[in-house]
Structure formats: structure tokens, C-alpha cells
């Protein structure tokens, strides 16, 4: 396990690293997840042999620290991740980022373009959501912070099911809540607009039955759309297709 101090209070981002050469692959998880848990089985596959691979947990999640005086905006996450990547010496890396992590990766590419060579987004959030709906980030954002810490945390773990809860319970409560609120709120310009404007190669993996919307505009902007027979967790639901798509996008 590797780590980097990313805040003045000493808070650290940690990651699991698989050694290799060439442009690094940086894997970034979704809300309430952990990169080693979600990407571990695919990152070790022979198709990626020889490449340096970093399975990073963002502040507030998994094996990283959970400071409670951190804002947990998408910009905050991107800046902290940038500090970690600079410490790791990745240079321009290929980012593979799932769901909420995709929004962080887009923000990283906008704010720290020297750190992003290519983007592979995996069913990433591109648009604002309505608080209080669904089961994930939007539902969490329907609470106040006090309500979430006092009762929403336990209600959320019951609601999301055993698989997601297994990593969500490793998250800081404040971190999970604030990240969800800012993810639902989105950015200005929107994450979708940022994605359209980015100049790096961009690939967007999505379940066959859950396209991101605006496919024509995304394609016109140069985003390569790859439908996959899977649910939201593409790397777990269809690891063969996920691996093939990432290899093709980062060759």
C-alpha cells in the first residue's frame, strides 16, 4: 500500500499499486466504493501486465483518511487526487473512473490537464440529479447532514444492499454525505459540458440499457461510446468486456 499527504492537516490518500512501465493506469472508484475492492480482480489480469496500475481511494473512502473539515466537492476531490498523483510521479496517466469517480476524473482533467493523458469513464455521472430520489447519491442528498449522520447512514446501508454496503461502511459519514450532495448538485459548467470540451481521448462505457443521453452530441465531441452487457458496476458484472474496452481505449 502506498500513500501521499494531500492536506495541511496530514490527511493521506492511499492506493494499492501494481508495478509496471509505460503510461500509468489510475483506477478511481464510485461513491461509497473502494478501488482495490472494485478493480482488484481486473487490474491484475494479464491484459494489463507490464503497466503500472494505481488503485486509488479518494479522501473519505476505503483505505484513505476521512477528514471531517474537508469540503468534499468534486473540485476538492480532484485537487487532492492531483496532489497524490504528483507525489506518485504518474505524469500524464490514463484514468479509469467509475460513476462518481468519473465526475472527479473529468474535474481533474479540467483543473490539472498535465495529469490526464486519456479518460475512460465507466457509467459516470454527467448531469445534476434531484435530491431525495433513487437509492444512491440523490437519496443521500435528500437528508440534511445531521439527519444523515444520525439515522440516514444506517438507513442507507440497509437500502443499498449487502454488496454496496460492504464498501460503503468503510466511508466516513460526513465524507459520504458531502460528496453525494456535491455530486447531485454538479458543476458549472456541467460535467457533461466539460467532457464535451476536453481535448484528451475520451471513452465512455455504459450498460446497454442505460445510455448516458445526448449520445449524438457526445459522439460529435469525440467521445467514444461503448455499450456493455452489464449493470452499473461494469468491471464486476462483465470483467471480460470491461478489460477489452479499457485495453482498446488506452493502447
Automatic annotation (TrEMBL):
UniProt-listed Gene3D superfamilies: alpha/beta hydrolase
Name any one Pfam family assigned in the record. Answer: Abhydrolase_1
Q: Which SUPFAM superfamilies match?
A: alpha/beta-Hydrolases
Which superkingdom, per the lineage?
Bacteria
Q: What's one GO MF term for it?
A: catalytic activity
**For the AB hydrolase-1 domain, which residue ranges apply?**
23-127
Q: What is this protein called?
A: Pimeloyl-ACP methyl ester carboxylesterase
Amino acid at each position: 500500500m502506498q500513500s501521499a499527504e494531500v492536506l495541511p492537516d496530514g490527511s493521506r490518500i492511499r492506493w494499492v499499486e501494481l508495478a509496471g512501465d509505460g503510461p500509468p493506469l489510475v483506477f478511481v472508484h464510485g461513491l461509497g466504493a473502494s478501488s482495490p475492492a472494485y478493480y482488484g480482480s481486473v487490474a491484475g489480469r494479464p491484459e494489463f501486465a507490464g503497466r503500472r496500475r494505481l488503485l486509488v481511494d479518494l479522501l473519505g473512502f476505503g483505505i484513505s483518511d476521512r477528514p471531517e473539515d474537508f469540503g468534499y466537492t468534486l473540485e476538492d476531490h480532484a485537487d487532492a487526487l492531483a496532489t497524490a498523483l504528483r507525489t506518485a510521479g504518474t505524469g500524464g496517466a490514463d484514468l479509469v473512473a467509475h460513476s462518481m469517480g468519473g465526475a472527479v476524473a473529468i474535474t481533474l482533467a479540467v483543473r490539472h490537464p498535465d495529469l490526464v493523458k486519456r479518460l475512460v469513464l465507466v457509467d459516470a455521472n454527467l448531469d445534476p440529479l434531484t435530491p431525495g430520489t433513487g437509492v444512491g447519491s440523490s437519496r443521500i442528498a435528500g437528508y440534511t447532514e445531521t439527519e444523515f449522520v444520525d439515522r440516514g447512514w444506517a438507513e442507507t446501508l440497509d437500502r443499498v444492499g449487502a454488496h454496496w454496503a460492504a464498501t460503503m461502511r468503510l466511508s466516513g459519514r460526513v465524507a459520504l454525505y458531502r460528496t453525494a450532495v456535491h455530486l447531485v448538485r454538479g458543476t458549472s459548467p456541467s460535467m457533461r459540458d466539460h467532457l464535451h470540451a476536453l481535448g484528451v481521448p475520451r471513452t465512455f462505457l455504459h450498460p446497454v440499457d442505460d445510455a448516458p443521453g445526448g449520445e449524438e452530441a457526445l459522439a460529435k465531441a469525440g467521445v467514444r461510446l461503448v455499450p456493455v452487457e452489464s449493470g452499473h458496476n461494469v468491471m464486476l458484472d462483465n470483467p471480460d468486456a470491461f478489460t477489452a474496452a479499457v485495453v482498446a481505449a488506452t493502447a
